[in-house]
Amino acid sequence: MHIKNVEFIKSAVKPDQYPPAELPEVAFVGRSNVGKSSLINLLVNRKNLVRTSNTPGRTQLINFFSVNSDSFMLVDLPGYGFAKVPLDVKKQWGPMMTAYLSKRETLRGVVLILDVRRVPSQEDIQMLDLLRAHDIPPIMVITKCDKVSKNERKRQAQIISKTMQVQESEFLFFSALSREGIDGIWGALEPLVNT
Ligand code: GTP
Ligand code: MG
């Protein structure tokens, strides 16, 4: 994918705050701090388009980005599973996500991001269930692959595959540090965002 330009459109909580549903859209989801914002930055070749942080729970709103002069949208979703996020933010998360996943007609797929070093959580499993329940194709990305050896990656992929009940062949391996996997992820996204 050739990225000519990318523009932050707006942040939203409720459907009436979303930008008009006019462009094909792909969203990114996963636990707090897993690397959602980093992945988006790498995909569009922009170091700091989306704020990344060592503090989990940095992204608390739905953030819409328009790519290539309104060809399609990328959407950064707030992460789940971080204890220290303020209670009011946590309470808002469920309704905010359910509304987005069930009501966004232009949503073509969701990239579900998992950490190569972790056993997926209940919330990861529930997220995949939620996507399937709404007929939203999941794109499964295993990130932070630079943090483990090739052997460890293999072992972890087996564990993640078992826990998520997803075939290992469905995983795309990625690292924001080495940039490994970018082409594969675009390869999965391109057919979804092509109008
Ligand atoms: P929230 O918005 O808080 O939910 O987090 P996020 O999922 O958007 O994560 P973010 O992209 O902000 O990254 C969290 C931390 O992980 C940052 O310190 C990143 O630099 C780091 N990180 C992200 N991806 C990778 C990766 O592939 N490899 C390594 N080594 N670090 C990464
Ligand atoms: Mg983020």
From TrEMBL:
User: Keywords in UniProt for this one?
Assistant: Cell cycle, Cell division, GTP-binding, Magnesium, Metal-binding, Nucleotide-binding, Septation
Name by which UniProt lists this protein = Probable GTP-binding protein EngB
Q: Which PANTHER family has this protein been placed in?
A: ENGB-TYPE G DOMAIN-CONTAINING PROTEIN, MSS1/TRME-RELATED GTP-BINDING PROTEIN
Q: What does this protein do?
A: Necessary for normal cell division and for the maintenance of normal septation.
What HAMAP family does the database record attribute to this sequence? GTPase_EngB
* EngB-type G domain segment(s): 22-195
Can you name a GO cellular component term? Answer: cytosol
What cofactor requirement does the entry state?
A: Mg(2+)
Could you provide one GO biological process annotation from this protein's UniProt record?
A: division septum assembly
The family database entries (SUPFAM superfamilies) matched by this protein are listed as: P-loop containing nucleoside triphosphate hydrolases
What InterPro entries is this protein classified in? Answer: G_ENGB_dom, GTP-bd, GTP-bd_ribosome_bio_YsxC, P-loop_NTPase, Small_GTP-bd
NCBIfam families with a match to the protein in the record: GTPase_YsxC, small_GTP
**Similarity annotation:** Belongs to the TRAFAC class TrmE-Era-EngA-EngB-Septin-like GTPase superfamily. EngB GTPase family.
From which organism does this entry originate?
A: Geoanaerobacter pelophilus
